[in-house]
Amino acid sequence: MAITDKIYVKNHRQLASQLETSFPKSAFSGATLDILFSGDGIAKLDDASRDRVLEFAEDFLDCDCQGHPHCGCPERKFVSYLLELREQGFSPEAIVDVMGDDYMLYAYPGDVLSFLDDSVRTLEAAERLADVDGRTKAGDEISRRRRDLSR
Ligand SMILES: [Zn+2]
């Protein structure tokens, strides 16, 4: 399962009752993207929740793909967001706190940690491939990103 399958909406029940409809707890589930993040119901949310929901839509659902918002861009952008937080030195626990403050989302720190470990391993593999191919510049760049992630 991808990390984006393990990101949940905080105050899920409260939001569903404000919207007078149900949607899955998982933030990136198709129905949640439709109902909570791009639905007309947004006006029914209390101010604080609406701000966060709009913020999320602006930051991750801003593409013009035909299949929007089911085109994969929101997931890709969210993964970059997580990696950027890590590169800024945030621990998995702190990353969970930040996504809560920014977008009213939560995840289990253990899931974030395994995602980060997997990302480092993926970069290590890419680094080895670049070395084998003699692509030193690419290898150096990957190595730099990997070190930023594993601080
Ligand atoms: Zn897209």
Description:
The protein is mainly α and 151 residues long. 64% of the residues lie in helices and 3% in strands. It contains seven helices and two strands; from the N terminus they run E-H-H-H-H-H-E-H-H. The protein has a two-stranded antiparallel ribbon. Helix 5 crosses helix 6 (109-132) and helix 6 runs antiparallel to helix 7 (136-150). The protein is elongated, with a radius of gyration of 17 Å. The mean pLDDT is 94. The protein binds zinc ion.
Summarize the structure.
The chain has 151 residues and is an all-alpha fold. It is built from seven helices and two strands, in the order E-H-H-H-H-H-E-H-H. The protein has helices spanning 12-19, 30-37, 47-60, 73-87, 92-103, 109-132, 136-150, and strands spanning 8-9, 105-106.
How do the strands and helices of this protein lay out in sequence?
Layout: E1 8-9, H1 12-19, H2 30-37, H3 47-60, H4 73-87, H5 92-103, E2 105-106, H6 109-132, H7 136-150
Helix pairs in contact: 5-6, 6-7
Bound molecules: zinc ion.
Zinc ion binds next to loops.
